[in-house]
Amino acid sequence: MQKTETKQYFPHRLLPAVLATVLLAGLPLSAAEPAKSVASALRPFVDSHTLAGAVTLVASKEKILSLEAVGWADIAASRPMKTDALSWIASQSKPVTATALMMLVDEGKVNVDDPVEKYLPEFKGQWLVVEQDKEQVLLKKPARSIAVRDILSHTSGLPFSSRLERKGDALKIDRLSLCEAVISYALTPLNFEPGTKYDYSNAGINTAGRIIEVVSGMPYEEFVARRLFKPLGMTDTTLWPSQKQVRRLAKSYKPNADKNGLEVTPIDQLSYPLTDRNRGPSPAGGLFSTARDLSIFCRMILNLGVYRGKRYLSEAAVGQMTSTQTRDLPQAYGFGWSTDRKPGSSFGHGGAYNTNMQIDPQRQLITIFMVQHAGYPGTDGDKILPAFKNAVVEAFGK
Description:
Layout: H1 15-25, H2 43-47, E1 53-59, E2 64-74, E3 79-80, E4 87-88, H3 93-106, E5 128-132, E6 137-140, H4 148-152, E7 166-167, E8 170-171, H5 178-186, H6 202-216, H7 220-232, H8 243-246, E9 253-255, E10 262-264, E11 288-289, H9 291-302, E12 306-307, E13 310-311, H10 315-321, E14 347-350, E15 356-360, E16 365-370, H11 384-396
Antiparallel strand pairs: 1-2, 1-16, 2-3, 4-11, 5-6, 7-8, 9-10, 12-13, 14-15, 15-16
């Protein structure tokens, strides 16, 4: 962990409270910033049993400014949340996959305006649903084939997932190999004409991951490890956490039936054990990571594709990814990133269990919020992320 350079001074009468906060966060005293504590804003949610625990991080493109932990990684075992806690980041995998594909765009091996079928022939002759009821489905040929830009911006017409990815009513994003999953998408009729609507689609981003495999000649997981994770130093970002990493995994929680406490909930979209490498990769939602690792990735993006003097992505590719590509549609989305229509505004992405990362180019600031919490609606849990963001503004200015 990178230490802050600012020295902190505080009255001796506050020392016991500060020490308690530091020990709970798993931070050495020299790295703590009592005067700029962000995680302390989340303590009321921990005390009210709305939140088990969280890791918070604030960074510039040069360094980590704040890294803290609050609460518990495992309530029953009294295991404190620590700053190196591992989390399932779910859909925060999408910007990683988009970045990997844009590296191939930079190399001239992929063009975002090409039809997907140029790289994946199984998409030739795809059909479009015109009408559907319980008795019949009317199909027709779409006006055009889906393009690479469509799958990166959720405007392809592909569904969220295919029937083959489901086991009964439950979605298992790792049930199929990537090749099998993408073939099942190609065999599924489109829900709308490509480019005319926005519909959030794991299938689209997974298809982008398959294009990476076909064009690069290596499995998706090998490409992102070789080209991103290893050179960037993202040592805890993986599809299949090791036994050692699993021991650092924060347990996931949801509100109990009475909405007055928390209960453990498994990551129901994944198969177990998580260490099993026979689980299929999901470029749209399969990654595990830490706050530190995600901050490295975000610092590279904030620095327009450069990290510690090495260029990973062109400025043009970063600009395309992080600016709105959905034209005049109501939803603003880039390539793998949630965006804002106003030029220069912040962009980011969240995950199914309420993890979140945001990059603000104007303030040159990155915020990372790591929790493992399902089922916020109907509880005070929807106040947690705003409380974190407000604490960042108070600590680091507007």
